[in-house]
Structure formats: C-alpha cells, structure tokens
Amino acid sequence: MNDVSQTTAMPTLGAKVGRYRWRVCAMLLAATTINYIDRQVFGVLAPFLQDKIGWNEIEYGHIVTAFQAAYAIGLLCAGAVIDRFGTRIGYALAIGIWSLAAMSHSLATGVLGFAAARFALGLGESGNFPAAIKTVAEWFPQRERALAAGIFNSGSNIGAIAAPLLVPIVAATWGWQAAFLFTGALSATWLIVWLLTYRTPDNQPRLSAAERAYIGHEPPGPRSRMRWSQLLRYRQAWALVAAKFITDPIWWFFIFWLPKFLHASYGLSLLELGPPLIVIFVLADIGSITGGWLAGRLIKLGWSANRARKGAMLICALMIVPVIFAAKAHNLWLAVALVGLATAGHQGWSANVYTLASDMFPRFAVASVVGIGGFAGAVGGMLISTVIGLLLQATGSYVPVFAMAGFAYLFALIVVHLLVPRLQPARLDEPPPGNPPPSPIAAAE
C-alpha cells in the first residue's frame, strides 16, 4: 500500500491571501510563553527555596508530582471542555485558573503549601496545549500547521529563557513571593486581550475573504464531542498517547531539574544560573521552529505527510542521543551544549507530535485527542518525577536519568510507526478496522 498523502488541495488564490492567521499564532505564542514563565518560576527558585524551607529530594519530587498529577487530571476534561465550548471560552477559563494559581504560590510557607499551589497551577495550565492545537487546526491549512505549532510551542522555550532572566532580579529585589505575583499578573493581562480580540475564522470580521477561503478548506465537524472511550478505539489516538507518554517526562525533567543539576554539578548561584539556562532554551527555541518548518518544507517538496512528519521526528530523535554524556561532562559549557542540543531536538519533535493530532483527526476532535496525549505525558511525568527524586536521594547521580533521555525518542518513534505506519486519518464515522460496532447498550452509556 502506498503512503497516504495528506497534502489536501488548496484553493488557488494567488500569492497573497492575507496574514491575519499569523496574528492568532502570535497570541498563542504569547500564551505559551507566559504558561512556561509561570511554570518555570518554581524550578528557577527551587535550589534556594529548598535551602530556605528545608525540603529534601523526595519531597521536591512530591511537589513536582503534585503539578503533574493535576495536569493529568485537568487533561481528562480540558480537551473535552474546549471542544464543547470553543477555543475562545475554553482558553479563557484555563488561563484564568492558572493566573490565580500562579499568584497563590506567594502564600505558601512549606511543602504542603507549595504542593497545593502547584496542583492548582497544573489544573489551569492543562488547557493551554489542547486549546492552542485546536486553534491552529481552525486557523491553518495542513501544510502550515507544523510550522504554526512550532512557532507557538517555541513559547515554552522563550518562557524558560525569560524566567531565569526575570525571576532572580525580581526575587532579589522584592522577595521570592513577588516573582510569583508578577508572573501571575502577566497571565491576567493576556486573558483580557484574548477575550477582547479573539474570534474563530468564520466570525472574525478582520479576516479577508481570500484568507478565509485559504483556511477553510476543511468542512466543519459536528458540534457534539466524542468521548475518550470512543477515540481510544483508534490506533491513531494510541500513537499520540505513546509518543507523549514516552517523551514528555524527559521535557519535565529538563524543566524542573536542570537548575538543580547545574547548581549541584557546577555550584552555580541563583544569578549565575541565568546564562546557561538561556543558552539551553535559545537552542530549544531554534529547534522548535526548525522542526516544524522542516516537515512543512518536505511536504512542499512532494513528500507525503507520513514521510515528512516521521522524517523530521527521526532527525530530532537523533539530536537527543548525545545527551547521555551530559552528566559526566567536566566542563559546564560542554554540558550546556549537550543539553541544549537535546532540548532543541525535543521541541522539534514536539512540534511534529502535536501536529499528528490534526493530521489524523478532524478539527472537532483535535483538542480531545491532544488532551488524551497530554494526560499520558503527564502520567509519565508523574512516574519519572517520583523515580528521579528517589534516585537522587539515594545516589546523587544524574547518569541514569540522562541515559533514559537519550534513547527515549528513538523508541517512541518506533512505537508510533508500528501503530500508524502510513499516518492514515481516523474515520470517526466508521467503526475502527477489526472492531465490531458498539452495542446499543454501550452506545447509550
């Protein structure tokens, strides 16, 4: 069987069709940047809050796990809520919750207080990526989706860069509580702008007719949402679940343990952490945009979506392998280079993995499918956070953790290919191949 090419025919509209969709992408970029600033504040301050408050590695692992548990729980319903109420209202609900949760960290005085604040933050932040991916599916044709996803996903790196730049200065000047209040206020500001400006393409009066036609080649789907139990009957959903479960924990490790790794291995102070983290996440930013651009470029050259997506994912996976040597690097900047290459590979990989959802599912199901994948990634993150905490408390060695990181992506790509060898779209109007139609009793549940 030949590869199923998914380069859906576009209307011929001339070279210029408008650029309003890229303004929407800029809004998603800003939201994701703020999302990661809010998320990263705790990681930047962790080595010094640990000394101040007195938690150990196991307790720190529990605090991180609280965020990831809430993130997983939130994703059980975030995608469905966004599919049901739409991106405008769904995104607003998510960012409103995480803005309040981010500021609530300033009230914490111990392990339980921080765990509660992290739990609330995880609930709110769980809505970001389902909402953003659904917005991309609404506003972009298929050949541009990976690039758009790569651009907004680069906000995670910009946020991770901004946090070590801003947080130490704010904390040193006004105290660590002010850092959480400041970043929470950024979220609230974005929320106001979003509600005032965002509309779907069908309802956006500033969108030209040509650009609306360019975007709107896919017919709208039904308004009723599909339950997870229905979506999980399809191998396409399990491909996203596997990719996220295997590789998301590695990104969680980079986000929450890199400052601690650099502090423990090279004795960096709060202000000295800034330059290495900035370099690492600048490289990640480049990887995010390049990984999304690469797949789109290959599609334009005539590759099928299957070959282009998996080819880009393979290149990104190979970039991560050298990180296995980072824990033994005797020079700070060698370690930074190895980790930076790995974060670039992860973000390029992630831009393409997110786009798998819109490659294989219609728009009305995208946020739910991304929610399922995000839930799997958060569960994997919970597991690895507990394991890392126990491992570091017992041995103090990062070697096995970096070894896991180095080979996880190649393994994940193999699993994805076995599940969807041709990246064929899920036919949600038909029973999955090999599965009998649901019984009337099951359908009524």
From TrEMBL:
The keyword Membrane applies. Its main location: membrane. Residues 24-424 form the Major facilitator superfamily (MFS) profile domain. It is a multi-pass membrane protein. Keywords: Membrane, Transmembrane, Transmembrane helix. The chain crosses the membrane at residues 60-82, 89-117, 174-196, 237-258, 278-299, 311-327, 333-357, 364-392, 398-420. PROSITE patterns: MFS (PS50850). It is found in: Membrane. InterPro entries: MFS, MFS_dom, MFS_Na/Anion_cotransporter, MFS_trans_sf. Belongs to the major facilitator superfamily. Phthalate permease family. This is MFS transporter.
